[in-house]
Write a structure and sequence with these properties.
Helix content is about 30%, strand content about 20%. By secondary structure, it is α/β, with parallel strands linked by helices. It has one domain: 3-Layer(aba) Sandwich (Rossmann fold). It has a seven-stranded mixed β-sheet, sandwiched between helices. A four-stranded mixed β-sheet has the order 9-10-12-13. The protein is globular and about 95 Å long. InterPro entries: TBL, TBL_C, TBL_N. Keywords: Membrane, Signal-anchor, Transmembrane, Transmembrane helix.
Length: about 425
């Protein structure tokens, strides 16, 4: 046998090296394919990264997207994220446990959408999302009630510092220093310009003077400072009021003034919403706006000033509650005006915060007589007459679930 020639030896050497290179290439290619498959599998759900690369919040997949405002209240053994003693920003009228409410079951329910899972509100996620931003809740006492709930949960992560309040302590501002986040509540119960003659208990000395075509000066002057706003109104439009447009009286609601035309409250509500939404839509300052629908009350056998009360201890089921005519009228106006406005937002974002049905199903979550400190102390329970609050919410209470909805909407964007 002849020994291999130099040329054939060189060929074997080159062939062997090429074979090794091919094997190495195939290994690298297989690694890339494996990594691609792993990436696709791991990120098959939608995630939102919040400023910090080490923090990722899972949200429902596209298939799971649904109307989070349609669902039911389910028992929640975990309970609230705070207590009446761990949160220092609860106003006394909503501090039901401190005021002596004897039951606590109303705190152990949570809103569950019908067709998808709703993650719990995460204060860490919210504060990171809001880093270097400003948010304002503009409206009536329901807006203030919601802000208190949000503050209570956020304060478990970082104590807020109150940096402003108006003379009546109805408008306030808080600052979260480590996140450079400002949270405000602005008292503007009609959203448009109004002169109100009423004390803190709702007793009026004169008709409201309501300018339907002028957005409220309380918030217009601050508007350019906000990145996010939530607006809401409703129940105040049932009050006796004189209506103005172009600084001229056009009518009134329940005022009984000679030669002044009676005007339905829903006309005034519609005009006020149009004025508010048009201002936001046409402003050069673009904001993310949440428009909240009306909150029904649960007074039974009377109203707040005629002996009405609310003493239920569990939520309604879907089939057990229907909106009253007044709430239906308000909601119809809201949905109609929202539909008009959302079609032409001029660069701003407008979202519906549709909590009407959630609220309707919770007759058990109000302060009732426990808006006051131990209201029956020293009184005959069979003859005790106290004012009830069947509109606002105990804290902790049902309104805490609104924050689950809030962060869900914001992070989806």
């Amino acid at each position: 046998m002849k020994p291999p020639s130099a040329s054939s030896a060189m060929f074997c050497f080159i062939g062997g090296r090429a074979q090794k290179q091919i094997q190495m290439f195939l290994k690298i290619l297989a690694s890339f394919v494996f990594m691609a498959l792993a990436y696709r599998f791991y990120f098959s759900k939608t995630y939102v990264a919040l400023h910090q690369p080490d923090f990722i919040l899972p949200l429902p997949t596209r298939a799971e997207k649904c109307d989070v405002f349609r669902g039911e209240w389910v028992r929640d053994p975990e309970g609230p994220a705070y207590t009446s003693s761990s949160c220092g920003t609860i106003e006394r009228h909503q501090n039901c446990i401190k005021n002596g409410r004897p039951d606590s079951g109303y705190m152990y329910w949570r809103w569950r959408p019908r067709d998808c899972k709703l993650p719990r509100f995460d204060p860490k996620a919210f504060l990171r999302f809001m880093r270097n931003k400003s948010m304002a809740f503009i409206g009536d006492s329901i807006s203030r009630n919601h802000v208190q709930s949000l503050l209570c949960i956020l304060s478990q992560m970082e104590p807020p510092v109150e940096v402003y309040h108006d003379k009546g302590y109805r408008s306030k501002r808080w600052f979260f220093e480590s996140h450079n986040f400002t949270l405000s509540v602005i008292w503007s119960p009609f959203l448009t310009e109004a002169k109100i003659f009423e004390d803190n208990d709702g007793h009026a000395t004169g008709a409201v003077r309501l300018h339907l075509d002028e957005p409220g000066s309380e918030w217009v002057g601050e508007f350019d400072k906000f990145d996010y706003v939530k607006i809401g109104a409703g129940k105040w439009f049932l009050k006796t009021a004189v209506y103005y447009e172009n600084n001229t009286i056009i009518g009134c609601h329940n005022c009984k003034i000679v030669n002044v035309t009676e005007v339905r409250f829903d006309y005034a509500y519609r005009r006020a919403l149009q004025t508010t939404l048009n201002f936001i839509r046409k402003s050069d300052h673009k904001v993310y706006t949440l428009f909240q629908t009306t909150t029904p009350d649960h007074f039974e056998n009377g109203e707040w000033n005629t002996g009405g009360y609310c003493n239920r201890t569990v939520p309604f089921k879907e089939s057990e509650a229907e909106l009253r005519d007044i709430d239906t009228i308000m909601r119809d106006v809201e949905l109609e005006e929202f539909k008009k406005a959302v079609g032409d937002t001029n660069g701003s974002t407008l979202k519906l915060f549709d909590t009407t049905r959630l609220a309707l199903l919770r007759p058990d979550g109000h302060p009732g007589p426990y808006r006051a400190f131990h209201p029956f102390e020293g009184k005959d329970l069979n003859d005790a007459r106290v004012q009830n609050d069947c509109l606002h919410w105990c804290l902790p209470g049902p309104i805490d679930s609104w924050n689950d909805l809030l962060i869900n909407i914001l992070l989806r964007e």
